[in-house]
């Protein structure tokens, strides 16, 4: 038998041709971004250790109807970092500064993992800038992470992202330091309390795979249960890497969310 879909880590997609790429000098670093299509803006935020290429399957599906902006978080992919410690607040401020740079008063946010946490921080702290939030596989606190040493796919992902970092980064030898700094954040952040989640008033779907072994189901339900009027979607037969494990379904779910009133 073939291995279950949720245990596979398909190849990282390539970004499609035709995007307008740029670097925004903000908050002491250079944030790389690419823009595709036209229409209402949709910002896509990748997971920790990753880069915007992971959205390569979703961009064509969305860019026919929306202006899609993919962003490499600070220190990830093609973006640079400085000596400031990583925090979700800092990375959320990078997104707001990029929106200012691109003259976008408001956007829908699609976030995966760390990107979803950044999206939640924006919905809490900068609600006027967020039209909607599709939050795939965030955790509300460090204890919401499962034991990553037991995750086969996450181990593969770590090895892969090290190779991708060496290829894309302006500091190709810096992965170990980069990983160590991110790990400090993961073990101490976020702290999304019931009160903070309860303050969210923008439309939110909290989404996860039914076989996610990176974040706990208990924490996913905690987040969904405390955001007023949020939707909860559990995608079947996928894990933490649903966006590449079942990319067509992932794209369809995003489109369904974006097209709702």
TrEMBL record:
Region annotated Disordered, chain positions: 1-20
Domain of life: Bacteria
Keywords: Hydrolase
Molecular-function annotations in GO: serine hydrolase activity
Pfam families per record: Abhydrolase_1
All copies of domain AB hydrolase-1, residue ranges: 41-144
Protein name (Swiss-Prot/TrEMBL): Alpha/beta hydrolase
Organism: Sinorhizobium saheli
């Amino acid at each position: 038998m073939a291995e279950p879909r949720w245990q596979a880590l398909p190849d990282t997609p390539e970004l499609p041709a035709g995007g307008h790429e740029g670097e925004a000098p903000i908050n002491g670093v250079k944030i790389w971004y690419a823009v595709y299509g036209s229409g209402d803006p949709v910002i896509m935020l990748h997971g920790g250790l990753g880069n915007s290429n992971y959205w390569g399957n979703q961009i064509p599906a969305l860019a026919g109807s929306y202006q899609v902006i993919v962003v490499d978080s600070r220190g990830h992919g093609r973006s640079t970092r400085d000596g400031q410690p990583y925090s979700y607040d800092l990375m959320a401020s990078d997104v707001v500064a990029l929106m200012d740079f691109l003259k976008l008063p408001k956007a829908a946010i699609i976030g995966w993992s760390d990107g979803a946490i950044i999206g939640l921080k924006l919905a809490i702290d900068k609600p006027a800038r967020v039209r909607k939030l599709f939050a795939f596989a965030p955790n509300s606190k460090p204890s919401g992470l499962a034991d990553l040493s037991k995750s086969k796919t996450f181990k593969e992902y770590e090895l892969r992202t090290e190779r991708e970092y060496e290829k894309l980064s302006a500091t190709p030898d810096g992965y170990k330091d980069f990983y160590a700094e991110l790990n400090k954040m993961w073990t101490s952040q976020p702290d999304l309390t019931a009160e903070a989640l309860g303050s969210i008033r923008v439309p939110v779907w909290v989404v996860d795979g039914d076989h996610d072994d990176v974040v706990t189901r208990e924490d996913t339900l905690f987040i969904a249960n405390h955001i007023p009027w949020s939707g909860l979607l559990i995608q079947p037969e996928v894990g933490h890497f649903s966006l590449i494990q079942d990319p067509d379904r992932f794209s369809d779910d995003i489109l369904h969310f974006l097209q709702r009133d």
